[in-house]
Design brief:
- The protein is α/β, with parallel strands linked by helices.
- 25% of the residues lie in helices and 30% in strands.
- The protein is globular.
């Protein structure tokens, strides 16, 4: 049994190191997984570039990464439903299963959540960017043989977006607005289309993500920085958008979503930002439904299944892959939205 593994460890902002760490054998109910691919998420970038986000700071060395997939190498005692050699998407969410929210079926709000690669608690919860990892068998979701490891690693961000679309309620036949087309915005486009959206309009402030949005099926893509009046027609008669997904975390984008969404329509706030002003008079007068969305629960398995069958094709989002040894290069590339959509690390 291999007793050590390489890991991508963040010590502080811009201090990312590849280190060797001890690796134990899987115990009862656990499996050993050889990681094959890991996607760099926006939160990983915040940790790398700034040492955290908001009040959440890295206070001790932490392995980054929560968008990972790999191959089962060994099974602990009492593990069933998994086989050595199976390709699995790894669910980074580990709720306690006992608190009031877990018992109510909304485990994304678990009071004792352990989510990989998170500095929210101390000691930090270590992440999945490592060659090998021992995990609970329940966190392993098998995918089909034709599914690449890179595709399987997209299960986590797609799960976030499936949950966001679920928060919106009925989307079938609706006119949808998506503000901000980074990886999450792009996956919301795919998830909304899968849910039956009749028309999808995407906005951003730079052209490359808008060009990408068109390629994956957006009906219209608008640079609102260059043409602020391009969507003026959507504001007529109190608004013509049925459902808006605000994926940028920008207060101007939320204000525009409120302006364009029709009375009693739904706005789902997907992007995370700081404290912002909200035009409450408009929100109230139009009887709008402003809803939050946070992580996922059962949607992880649904995302893995959608990717496994390619009902939702995530392959176009994977724009670059770098080996673990070039992790710093990969993070710098991921931070440049003019050159990348989703950057992944490849592991030995």
């Amino acid at each position: 049994m291999i007793d050590s593994t390489r890991a991508c460890v963040l010590h502080q902002a811009k201090d990312l190191r590849i280190e060797t760490q001890p690796l134990g054998a899987p115990g009862p109910g656990e499996v050993l997984v050889r990681i094959g691919a890991g996607g760099i998420c926006g939160s990983d970038l915040h940790y790398y570039l700034d040492g955290g986000f908001g009040a959440i700071r890295v206070r001790e060395p932490m392995i980054l990464g929560h968008e990972v997939a790999g191959t089962v190498e060994a099974l602990g005692a009492s593990v069933s439903g998994l086989a050595i050699g199976a390709v699995v998407a790894l669910n980074p969410s580990h709720p306690c299963g006992m608190c009031e929210y877990c018992r109510a079926g909304v485990a994304q709000h678990c009071l004792d959540m352990r989510f990989w690669g998170s500095a929210m608690r101390m000691p930090h919860v270590q992440g999945g960017f490592r060659d090998r990892i021992v995990v609970g068998a329940k966190q392993c979701v098998p995918v089909s043989a034709q599914t690449s490891l890179g595709e399987a690693a997209m299960s986590e961000p797609l799960a976030v977006c499936l949950h966001a679309v679920r928060q919106a309620g009925a989307v079938k036949g609706k006119r949808v607005l998506v503000t901000g087309c980074g990886p999450i915005g792009a996956l919301v486009v795919l998830a909304a289309r899968d849910a039956g959206a009749a028309e999808i309009i995407v906005t951003d402030v730079v052209d490359p993500p808008l060009e990408f949005a068109r390629r994956i099926g957006a009906d219209r893509a608008v640079n609102v920085a260059r043409d602020r009046d391009a969507l003026a027609g959507e504001a007529k008669d109190k608004g013509r958008i049925d459902v808006a997904f605000e994926c940028s975390g920008n207060p101007r984008a939320l204000a525009q979503a409120i302006e364009l969404t029709k009375p009693q329509g739904v706005i789902v706030q997907v992007g995370i930002g700081g404290t912002i002003e909200v035009p409450l008079n408009v929100l109230t007068a139009k009887e709008l439904n402003l809803r939050g969305t946070f992580r996922f629960h059962e949607e992880f398995a649904q995302a893995a299944e959608a990717i496994s069958t390619r009902r939702i094709d995530v392959r176009p989002l994977i724009t670059a892959t770098r080996p673990l040894d070039l992790a710093v290069e990969a993070f710098e590339l991921a931070a440049d939205k003019s050159r990348s959509m989703k950057v992944q690390l490849a592991f030995a």
